[in-house]
Amino acid sequence: MEKKVMLPLTEEKVIGLKAGDTVLLSGVLYTGRDAAHKRLCELIEAGKELPIEVKNQVIYYVGPTPAKPGNAFGSGGPTTSYRMDPYAPKLLDLGLRGMIGKGLRSKEVIESMVKNKAVYFGAIGGAAALIGKSVVKSEVVCYEDLGAEAVRRIEVKDFPVVVVIDSEGNNLYEQGQAAYLNSIEK
Fold first, then answer.
1. How distant, in Å, are the alpha carbons of 42, 132, 155 from that of 158?
2. The domain containing residue 91 runs over which residues?
3. pLDDT tens digits, 8-46
4. Which CATH number characterizes residue 126's domain?
5. Is 63 within 8 Å of 149 (Cβ atoms)?
């Protein structure tokens, strides 16, 4: 069963999401990859205000292709998440509630997710064009010089994701592997 979640992503909503849940997100989220994350964390370290509010927000790790005429967004497949791992805990400490990407996360990120009640969603890379169609509005909010990697504020409707790591640290990658190994042992 799919869960429909309206953004922003509050702690209460995060706690209700469990590893393996299929979710359709609707509302506002932000995009950003490693270059943008590095700049955001440099601002945090300097004690300066961020150009976006991260509390109760979700960041999608993506650098979309240019939008075709009439579309708000181009194809938008997820970026490999470990590239953001050096920066994620600082943003989680500021109240970031969700991250969307693909691949494994570090122990430090998972510990920070548990501490800060956050969730990691997986998006399907092969469905980049379909994901792009879930975006109804997109605007660059900062770091325009980064091109496709600029931070965008996007509005999504029924954006398809799966909870990979929940706020308790349950990890679908580990659970799936364990279930498979159990099935072949029997």
1. 33, 11, 10
2. 2-185
3. 999 999 999 999 999 999 999 999 999 999 999 999 999
4. 3.20.130.10
5. yes
